[in-house]
User: Fold these one by one.
Assistant:
Number 1:
Amino acid sequence: MIQRLALRGKTYDIHIREGLLDDCGGLIREYLGAYCASEVVLITESNVRRRYAARMGDALARARIAFWPFVLRPGERSKSSASLARLYDAFAARRLRRDGLILAFGGGVVGDLAGFAAATWMRGVRFVQIPTTLLAQVDASIGGKTAVNTRAGKNLVGAFHQPSLVLSDPALLADLPAREFRCGMAEAVKYGAVRSKRLFERLRTAPDRAALCDIIGECCAIKAGIVERDVFDTGERMILNFGHSFGHAIETLGEFRRYKHGEAVAMGMVSAAETGERLGLTARGSADALRAVLAAQGLETDCPYTPAELLPQMETDKKNSGGTLRLVLLAAPGEAFVHTLDRAALRKAMGGI
Ligand code: GLY
């Protein structure tokens, strides 16, 4: 299946197919056409390298694409300015020029870091996303958000830089730890909740292998449409943060160890739906519907923190401005909107603290 994201001045394809890893070289060669990238760097992390480097190496060799690898440690700590500095040093040593190509082969951390390096090196080098986690296949690899973490906070330093091509092989997901997989499903549920009642209903049962490929395609199609209409996240794209204001607060209170991002977003979506119901803006029963769908995907839905704990964290969210908070709410599953309210109103809607 191929989805397409069409922006003014940049259109790219998102290929989703089992077994696609072995055809990566051919698809990149096809994208490059007559153009020959002066240098190709493959950025990955050590777990991905251990599992798939040989297959990726063969796929690129068959397409006569010479590359050099850059391997990160797995985990969020690699999304740092220190890793970025090491990458820049390697680019300089290898004389990577503006006509080079970066391949980001891994999950969200690799994609975000490699994407930011691609956005900034020589003021912009082309890059290809080859996501290996469900979360990256349904969400992070599409739409051009790139970032590194700094002492000031997660993702505060970043750039919009669209990939030139996205190559997703759902067969790789069979190797994902179950917890990682569930985190990706939380984001898939988010796509149903914000834009597609049909997808939302479909997720009332855990997908088999064939359905999974389809679900990834559906999430990508929804995201592509939204990004096409609001590439810089100033309007409609904000609905993709459904559950994230609460979710970031939950992650922070758990010191980024207790819950993974997708787990926190799952609880955050339920909290947002409950808040919307209390405000009279969300159809009654929406929070229960979300609980049922998320539980079917093996996700916890009960937020362990009190409104008094959550609220101060939510006030630091980068979507807020001028003393008001912006919250993504559901009218009903399948339909989201951005709601602006002040602290007192939110406090009351969260259960009056
Ligand atoms: N992950 C949400 C977005 O790309 O806007």
Number 2:
Amino acid sequence: MSDIESDTQRILQLRSELREHNHRYYVLDEPTVPDSEYDRLFRELKALEAKWPTLVTSDSPTQRVGSTALATFRQVRHEVSMLSLGNAFDESSMFEFDRRVRGGLDLDSDLLFEDIEYSCEPKLDGLAVSLLYKNGVLVQGATRGDGATGEDVTLNVRTVRSIPLSLHGAGWPSVLEVRGEVFMSKAGFERLNAFQAEGGGKTFANPRNAAAGSLRQLDPRITATRPLDFCSYGIGQVQGSLPDTHVDILEKLQEWGLPISRDLKRAKGIDECLAYYRDIGERRSSLSYEIDGVVFKVNSLPSQRELGFRAREPRWAIAYKFPALEELTELIDVEFQVGRTGAVTPVARLKPVRVAGVIVSNATLHNMDEVERLGLMIGDTVIVRRAGDVIPQIMQIVKDRRPSNARAVQIPESCPVCGSHVERTQLVKRSKGKETVSEGAVYRCVGRLACGAQLKQAIIHFVSRRAMDIDGLGDKTIEQLVDEKLIGSPADLYKLKYEQIIDLEGFADISSKKLITAIENSKTPTLARFIYALGIPDVGEETAKVLARSLASLERVQKALPEVLTYLPDVGLEVAHEIHSFFEDSHNQDVIGALLSPDECGLQLQDQGELSAEFAASTTLGGFLDKLHVPSVGPGAAQKLADKFGSLEGVIKADWLDMRQALPEKQAKAVREFFDNPDNARHALAIEQQLRDFGMHWQSEKKVVEGLPEAGHTWVLTGSLELMSRDVAKDKLESLGAKVAGSVSAKTHCVVAGPGAGSKLAKASELGLKVLDEEAFVAFLAKHNISV
Ligand code: IVH
């Protein structure tokens, strides 16, 4: 066989395997091979297609994402109009629908009393699209538009992974127009919005808007990054033959690789339809996507033809809607609640309204930035939304309904609970040795434990099961204890007397004794539990465990410098500063002192002891210098300093000439200036000393890298990443021993390509290199126990 013949065969085989894996992954949700295998096959196909460009076909799995943006969408006329559906909102309209169907059919006398067979499908909340397959190949995708003319979104629908670029199997009509809904899962929507919010982009009010906004992008590369999905529910123009019931047709579409609803069912008569409606209704909030009702269709196609259409709606189908998830109501007031860490959060008080069967009168507003983002004023008419068990949210205001007496929402100057001053939090960002302070979204009551609200929450957290685990102390009791000034800090819990407890509401002899025992039994917590129980902002159970495991004594945790804490797994600088300032606070020191003092509370922490090898997190001098964030000094320059001077002291003391030998003038100057400031030099030495005290291993560069999994591999990052900055991605790769380079070459081991990746990605595919999208990259990091 010639080269081209065998390659052609391999290409065809790879395409069919990839199509199958793609289908299993995106349509059936049951992949049979790991992602790495898929990636390998994909890369092999890419390489062969690069070798034989004339063999590339538009339906090849490598061709999903186009590379140019359109100026406008072309208009497409629908051969068969895309109609809408009549709605039913109650059972009586469903019986009425059934009567109309029976009346419209010329039923034989023996069928007169038989039930009509209906198909039942969830009504997905997305947007309708038409997919045109000619000879099994997807040639056009169009939106519904006004039903007669829509927009050509071919390039965009091609990026939707569950839409096959060519039909599987055989026997399809030569022309087949599939109709269905493009939608976004609830999880995909949340992810997209979080990403958009982080990057200051537009957020979407609901999954439907997100799906529509994502599909109608002129640049298909943007659509490709959006988590869109597709579900077929019907057909348009057809040349060729198809079965003659709706369900059989959909099942055929499924055989040809198109996704259909998992909940597609046949029902005999309206009662079975109603049972189906109730069943789906009960499962509505646990479905992974949003639905706004159920669509019932007369299953027999001959019957459908007989019934025909009325105006723009088929007589043979109806949408039985669920109660809406969104309703309009009025914002009566905004009140402020004080949380455990003192955060003062706005809560919307709403004119009660029934949303999806539940009366809603409050909605969370998160913080003042959210109030600002919404442009909210008291008196506004707002759209509230309740999806599943999620706390109701205000999605939007209806601006043109704003009354003339609408009032601005103002953050109180003093705490509504204790009257202490309310301060706006500062966000301190440190990068390249510089600190920039900006205003945070959160306001805090400065009252700490003197604030009743914070004290109550702090105690509730302190005694909770995963913290000190004191059973028998409910929220109500804690409130009473605080309100009656029986306790003013967690330490006071250990001073409670039987006589005080028995006087509390709901307590009698036995329960009081039980509580005393529970309090007594909590006196020997593990270090991790104790740290967690303190309620340090941003320190959850996991971080508490990391601190306990790595530092092995409360004293070390208390003393640790923020920079030192950042050497611990998963502790970033923000959290490190929270921890540090918590222990610096004199009031906190007093409470901790009282808890641990044998004369007062007598707590004894377990498992404190010697440093374990675990924190012996290693660094190199280069890595250490890099982390000092000396202005204009990156990892490369830091390494050069390390190589040249061999120790921090050496660098601090280095004279100008020596420094110039190691670095270009500008960087050398920056380093000198940095360490000429005695505060910086002292601080750097203190960090180094503490790291040594805490058992940090200082390793020589080679040794560290050699043992690491990506040692000797060069990676390239291109495009924008959604879940982390490129700097962070680089850090993570370097921590695995990889080198991160700026350009792609044959020596590149792997390329991570985010949206907007251009020439580097193209070059990587040309070279047949391994390319990971962000999701795969995150999975790769996870495999090495690195989280994002
Ligand atoms: S059938 C002539 N089936 O609902 C019949 N529509 O209000 C046309 N939709 O534009 C539609 N799920 O976007 C049908 N299982 C389903 C559906 C469904 C969602 C949407 C579709 C259509 C709108 C009609």
